Amino acid sequence: MANLNTGDTAWLLVCCSLVLLMTPGLAFFYGGMVRRKNILSTLTLSYVFMALIGVQWLLFGYSLSFGKDIGGIIGGLNYLGFMNVGAAPNPEYSSSIPHQLFATYQMMFAVITPALITGAFVERIRFKSFLLFGIVWATLVYDPLCHWVWGAGGWLREMGVLDFAGGTVVHVAAGCSALAFAMVIGPRKGFGHIPLEPHNIPYTVLGAGLLWVGWFGFNGGSALAANGVAVNALLATNTSGAAAGLVWMLLSWLDGRPSTLGLVTGMVVGLAAVTPASGFVSPMAALVIGAVAAPISYYTIRFREQRGLDESLDVFACHGMASTWGMIATGLFASTAINPGGANGLFHGNPSQLGVQILATVVTMIFSFGVTYVVAKALNMSIGLKVGLHEEEVGLDISGHGERAYS
Amino acid sequence: MLKKIEAIIREDKLNDVKDALNAIGIRGMNVFEIRGQGRQGGITLAGRSGTYQVDMLPKMQMNIILSEDNVDETIETILAAGRTGAAGDGLIFVYPVDEVVRIRTGERGHEAVMYPGDIDEKKGRGKAKVS
Fold first, then answer.
1. What residues of A are in contact with residue B48 (Cβ under 8 Å)?
2. Distance between CA atoms of B5 and A398, rounded to whole angstroms?
3. For B53, nearest residue in chain A (alpha carbons)
4. Could you give the ipTM of this predicted complex?
5. Other CB atoms closer than 10 Å to residue A391's CB: what's the count?
6. Which domains does chain B carry?
7. Which class would CATH give A6-401?
8. Per the confidence metrics, is the pTM higher than 0.90?
């Protein structure tokens, strides 16, 4: 193909693998934090999306997200089954890589986003309800939102929102959906009285490492090219993760001793926060983004605990709030000197960008929370979201999957 | 008369207690990991944000079947080796035992808990049959 840039194509091919690996990384990040009797269930909640979205995205997910625009709200059916999504580039999204590669790369984002939500309802979710929720959420929340922010003709994209790699589409959406779901499903037995301790912190630590490495593909690949913006995004990602890790470790230390779990959680928070900003802001700005994200998420966890909500693995605090700050920070720090394809933020003389950022974030929050709440409620009233008490006590591995993780 | 000693000790004192018991000639024992609570009052651990309290802490339970004559010396040895002075050192329980049978040989009673070089041999109270 005369138009293909082999460097860009090679990089994005690798990024497909990097981002895909983040889902197993997330699975273990979450898995280590649940009790022994629920490890398989927790891993499965993430892994299943590799299968579910692997099919849904091909059949119609990609089309709804990136297909021919209808009213700025949703894509059409012109890419159903990836028809017309082939080796030739699609200039609406990228002129230098195959269209099919762009679509496949995007699939990996569509896989991990619903997997993020699962942290809200571990250790008590009914598997059948979860599967139904997964398909419905992907189609009714992710695909439209993706279209609004990234799809050609999407209304938020048309307004000039800057979301480099998924601050709204991935992290704010997952975080607010997690909040809504947790409110509907209710707490685990014993929440608030007995310590529901992580059974394998090393899994969580390893998962965090895989996530960090994968994030270079998540943010770096969102440049859709092997160029300076990709490097900037990669470095900004690294810097924010590092800064947030340090600050969280400090906060943890002030509360007693610096926990390893805290250190890696801080890192993930920094990585999530910089996601929308990574291709638009300088590394020094990324330092600030990570450093500020840490206390925001740290104290949001405390707040949630005090309010007695069992949003079990703090998706809202660590992803929702982190990327909310990240979207705002993009409106502050974005610079066309870093990325001529972006825009300037408040600190570079363009205050109106901040308004667009806040609008897009608020829209995402309301939409994802609202639709998730309604779907969760409907499922809860029909087939029920939570397993029975005895099933929960025995553990979802045995009651839901008929398996023991460790014999 | 045979007795059973259940000694609940700190996990990290297992080797000290075992070595001290072996030194006085108490060889037969089994150990398993348990959790328990008592006057120690649990501990405070660091979570991902802030701290949390854990009441049930891991300990080791050591089971020893022995002759009544040797109980006092055994208890003194466990106390000396297992004590740190801080709350959470543990407890010792003593029970009567109706019968002991060695599976390999079919020996019953006191013979079944005799080992070469054990405490009874040291005290001149008989020698274990080696078969």
1. 252, 259, 261-262, 265, 301, 314
2. 37
3. A195
4. 0.83
5. 15
6. 2-122 (3.30.70.120)
7. mainly alpha
8. yes
